[in-house]
Amino acid sequence: MLHPYLLSYLMEDEPVIEEIPERHVCSIHGPLINLSRRVADDDDIVFFEGLLDIDSDLDYLLDVPREQQLSLDVYYNHRLSQGPRQRFLHGASVEANGLFYVQYDEDGKAYLSVDAYDLRPQPGNPFSKEYVRRGLPKSNPGVFFTGIVTGIAVDRPDCRVYTFHLRVTRDEGDPDFGFQPWEIDFDIHCAIRMTVRWANRRLPQIGDFCLVSGELAGLYWLDGRHSPLVRAISIQVSQLVPPEDDDPEENDDVDDDSEDSDGTGDTTGQ
């Protein structure tokens, strides 16, 4: 399940926009594990600590570990869901969809969080053999986001890593009392293997506004901080609408005036 804005954007091969948006969107979907021992399922707002189990194949291209386990804070509002209330047991596998955010501390450590709009825990006892055997398929979370290319961290014949800057709006509050939006700025690094598939595509340049879809491959250290690393599946570069010409009627009036000044359209002197 994608954010509606991202879903509409994906319908176009080369989206055309009138201007680069000042706010961006980042969405994540995929399996995670609930690490919290006690979750207040009866509360309208549910919070628990989740774990993303990452297994990436970018370790032979970049200086990143093949396996990473990333913790993230999960927020979920039962009142925004039309389905029945869910129970989130300690150790349960949960299929999550939501808006993805990154914040940093002064040492560059990344803190991940998601405002979920859909959570589907796998039923059963998380510590039973049957639960593990019939568990959710292991896969890296999918990530979809819009952002602006601000740098190319790696540019080699076999690999390229783009840095995207995102400025997203996060709403905090309650449906009964209103939401208070606040802005969060963060980076996402996007890696592509320079295969024939990418050779036939338009690659982004610094300053381009893009929609990226891919899978989360861990964290990547650059410029003094860790940011999410995404292995790109698709990068769509937006096309800006060219500036419109002057009003054709105004141009016609100018042509008429020009003819008069040449004497071709002026009969007063005959």
Q: Quick gist of this model?
A:
By secondary structure, the chain is mainly beta. The protein contains 4 helices and 12 strands, in the order αββββββαβββαβββα.
Would you mind describing this structure in some detail?
The N and C termini lie far apart (76 Å). The longest helix has 15 residues, at 248-262. The chain is built from four helices and twelve strands. The model is unreliable at 1-12 and 250-261 (pLDDT under 50). The chain has 270 residues and is mainly beta. The chain has one domain (4-242): Nucleic acid-binding proteins (OB fold (Dihydrolipoamide Acetyltransferase, E2P), Beta Barrel), CATH 2.40.50. The strands form two sheets. Strands 2, 3, 4, 5, 6, 7, 8, 9, 10 and 11 form a ten-stranded mixed beta sheet that branches.
CATH C-level name: Mainly Beta
At CATH level 2, the architecture is Beta Barrel
Task: List the total number of helices.
Answer: 4
Order of helices and strands: HEEEEEEHEEEHEEEH
The total number of structural domains is 1
Query: What is the fold named in CATH at topology level?
Result: OB fold (Dihydrolipoamide Acetyltransferase, E2P)
Structural class: mainly beta
Mean pLDDT score? 82
Strand content bin: over 45%
Termini, distance in Å? 76 Å
Number of strands: 12
Largest sheet: 10 strands, mixed
CATH superfamily: Nucleic acid-binding proteins
Can you tell me the overall shape?
globular
Uncertain segments: 1-12, 250-261
- Helix proportion: 10-25%
